[in-house]
Amino acid sequence: MTGVEAPNAAQEVPERPRAAGRQDWTAWPKYNAAGSGYRGYWYPVTWSSHITGTPQSYTICGEKLALIRDAGKVYALHDRCPHRGVPLSEGDQQFPGTVSCPYHGWTYRLTDGKLVAVITDGPDSKICGKVEVQTYAAQERLGLVWVYIPITREPAPPLDEQLPRELVENEGIVGGRIQPRAGNWRFACENGFDEGHAKYLHRTSLWRLFKPMPTWNITRIVREGRWIYRVQDEVYWEAEFPGVGKWTNKRWWKKRPDETKVSQIGNVGAGLEVNPVIAAQNFPGFASLSMPGVLRISYPNFIHYEFYVPVDDDNHRYVGLMVNFVTGVHKLGFYAKYLGAIRWLFHGQFSGQDAWMVEVTDAPPEKLYRPDVSLTAWRNLAEEEYAEKLTAAVEFVKQPVAHTRARRASAKQNGTGEAASAQSVPSSE
Ligand code: FES
Ligand SMILES: [Fe+2]
Q: Which intervals hold domain Rieske (predicted)?
């Protein structure tokens, strides 16, 4: 019998051409790992008016929270009773300043999560003071409740440091919409800053019924501070596509764009009067994005913000705010316009087209094209900023003294009442 040597498999199988495109997001490891969101940020959870003395459940960054209002202030606790794991949001308030679990009446203090009474174990319950649930810094701003999701046990930084500066420094009126939406928060965020889609996907939206949009642009991404901006260098309102024909977004009934200039405010033609507060910002481009997924689109008369709040790997909360920087009676005018039209056309149908795409996006793998520089610039920004944040968090836990002091200072600033809890952290002071 003559033995035939098996051919080397590597020689036998012709090498397959590598699939073009990106197979995964390992080029951005932290972004890749942030499926359920980035910890270490404040997130808007719901409207202030929705939080009452009855606890309610919300999930942010995969973390279950019970939110409750007591004596006018909002508190956030981990939504799980340590006794048998029943959600505290199923419970209610039996004593001021506390929340009681519905099952056996374990009662937790809202300011620091400490177990202060066990109704079914009598007034001398030995377990009181030995158990606590985690509390989270919570604040109200812009008519919304914001909660800080910590990386470790670090104190919450001031919310104002994270909010867009123009919202902290100027008076305005807010109209908005919050919706639970399907799809990962990163798809929502990438869709928000995506250079390519608006001109095509939204061409049928009623919001753009009388306003034309370009066909394609040459766009640059510019970074300024913690924001990246899409800067339009060239705008093409129509184009002749070789071999297939002409394509344009222009229609006879739509306003004619001024094709002689490129506007950096709104996806509209140049030459419109711009609100002085918006003009004073000198944004290099009308669309900008910052961590942890905050989109800002400036128009001549208002700025539209989208917060893509991570819920879990497959869901996010869409928080869309339209802010008009007006005072006095002008506020009423904006509110009427918001409820009468903007809410339905923009936060409804237009934004619904985005929700549809976010729900059906399935990437990676992906093959990016020229306008997707908006996506890669965002991932680079996220990767860079989060690396710095993680380093700071690691440094923080290494310093027990600083840890305790910072928690106390933060508790005072954020009004969480964590000062009491911080005092119980062993320290070498
Ligand atoms: S599970 Fe909460 S009191 Fe028993
Ligand atoms: Fe869109």
A: 42-147
Flag whether 421 is in a domain: no
Looking at residue 9, what is its pLDDT? 43
Those residues with Cβ within 8 angstroms of residue 16's Cβ, 6 or more apart along the chain or in another chain: none
Kindly state whether residue 257 falls inside one of the protein's structural domains: yes
Residue whose entry in the numeric block shows the structure tokens 């390992």: 26
Q: Which atom of ligand 1 is nearest to the CA of 118?
A: 3
CB count within 10 Å of CB 225 equals 7
Domain limits at 312?
165-385
Domain assignment of residue 222, yes or no: yes
**Considering only CA atoms, which residue is closest to atom 1 of ligand 1?**
84
Query: 374 CA distance to ligand 2 centroid (A)?
Result: 13
Q: Say whether both 48 and 77 belong to one domain.
A: yes
**Is 24 part of any domain?**
no
pTM for the model: 0.86
Same domain, 220 and 362: yes
Is residue 106 within 6 Å of ligand 1 at its C-beta? Answer: yes
The residue type of 202 is H
For residue 104 the two structure tokens come to 């056996």
In ligand 1, the atom with minimum distance to the C-alpha of 86 is: 1
Ligand 2 centre and the CA of 194: distance in Å?
8
Q: Are 166 and 277 in contact (CB under 8 A)?
A: yes
Tens digits of residue pLDDT in 368-392: 999 999 999 999 999 999 999 998 8
Distance, CA of 101 to CA of 118 (rounded, Å): 9
189 Cβ closer than 6 Å to some ligand 1 atom = no
Distance between CA atoms of residues 263 and 280, nearest Å: 15
